[in-house]
Amino acid sequence: MSASPISTRIVKVDPVQPDPSVMGDAGALIETGGLIGFPTESFYGLGANALDARAVARVFAVKGRPEAKPLLVLVDSVAMAESLATEISSGTRDLMARHWPGPLTLVLTASGRVPSGLTGGTGTVGVRMPGHALARALVAAAARPVTAPSANPSAAPPPTTAEAVRQYFAGRMELILDGGATAGGAGSTVADCTVWPPRILRQGPVVVEPACA
Questions:
Q1: Domain for residue 15, yes or no?
Q2: 103-126 pLDDT, tens per residue?
Q3: Which terminus of the chain is more solvent-facing, meaning fewer CB atoms within 10 Å of its CB: N or C?
Q4: pLDDT of residue 185
């Protein structure tokens, strides 16, 4: 028997100065295992508590995402990133200092805190500090890392509006934060920092120069 539909709310939020009370409610929802659609620099993301294995499983189920495909995670500080990794090299820290907040995802060796489901069994985790103020405020309000795959079924185009997220997932997620249309375009650059120099897994807006690696 399929799960009963849940009520999906859409709340308009200033994308530059998000209302603290709205973000507090959203953070509490993340803490209790809820799913939230929210804007990032490029597309709307699908947010859940990245440290809650059941919440992570919901993200995979809602998207129809292959279990072997890891989820990227948003953090609001280098300290939060450190809590997800076994170690962070000086070169990786330099990339954080140069490009965070911004569209650069760094793949690190996952610590024991990270659910294996989130890593897709790879033992690694991709982390990013978002440049979008609302996305960063969501992580801060949740006080924990938040998943950030695009908020669409795996075979569908990624959404740039809250309405597109609603059409995809109404009845399957608790909240959509409507911060207006996003820019679309390329997703973040993804750099595998478990090797050095980093291996570029996806080229996006940030160019990781060999001289800086």
A1: yes
A2: 999 999 999 999 999 999 999 999
A3: N
A4: 86
Domain assignment present for 3 = no
In-domain check, residue 194: yes
Question: Sorting pLDDT into bands at 50, 70 and 90, what band is 3?
Answer: low
DSSP the chain: -PPPP---EEEE--SSS--HHHHHHHHHHHHTT--EEEE-SSSEEEE-BTT-HHHHHHHHHHHT--TTSPPEEE-SSHHHHHTTBS---HHHHHHHHHH-SSSEEEEEEBPTTS-HHHHTTSSEEEEE--SSHHHHHHHHHHTS-EE--BSS-TTSPPPSSHHHHHHHHTTT-SEEEE------S---EEEETTSSSPEEEE--S----GGG-
Give 190-199 pLDDT, tens digit per residue: 999 999 999 9
Which domain does 33 fall in, by range? 9-212
Read off the CATH number of the domain in which 134 is found: 3.90.870.10
Q: Does residue 2 fall inside a structural domain? A: no
